[in-house]
Amino acid sequence: MNRVERPLGERAQAMIDALASITAEPGKLTRLYLTEEHREAARLVGEWMRRAGMTVRMDAAGTMHGVLPAGRAGPGSNRRLLVGSHIDTVVDAGRFDGTLGVIAGILAVEEMRGRGVSLPFELEVLAFGDEEGVRFPKTLIGSSAVSGALGDTMLDLADADGITIRDALLSFGGDPDSLADEAYLPGSTIGYLEVHIEQGPVLDQAARPLGVVSAIASQGRYRISIKGEAGHAGTVPMDIRHDALAAAAQVMLTIEEIALKHAKASCVATVGEIKAMPGAGNVIPGLVEFSLDLRAATDEARTTAFEAIRYRLRNIGAKRGVLVSVETMHEKPVATCAPRLKTAIAGAIERTTGKKPIALMSGAGHDGQAMISLTDIGMIFVRCRAGISHNPLEHVEPEDLGTAVEALVGTIESIATDYDPGE
Question: What pLDDT does 12 receive?
Answer without folding.
Answer: 97
